[in-house]
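Re-run with default settings, no changes from the original entry. Doing this only to confirm the output is reproducible before filing.
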Amino acid sequence: MQYRELGRTGWKVSTVSFGAWAIGGSWGSVDDKESLAALHRSIDLGVNFIDTADVYGDGRSERLGAASQGTQREHLCGNQGGTSPRLACGEWI
């Protein structure tokens, strides 16, 4: 796995990240056991950056990502905030 420095943080992140949108279930039914197996396999292969957001399955991907704690390798979680169009109300700020 190749790594690059993240800005000036000194953190080395893998050039390949694990995108957690699909494990949130937004694209159809998912099996949590298979999702966790894929996440753990990516970490085993050296991926240390997990991309997730609160709107990926209404937080489901983040809860699954929390299960990656306690693995042998240190990893980072990139998180962004959003809003679900079906839950949004009022005006955007």
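Residues 3-80 form one domain. The chain has two helices and five strands.
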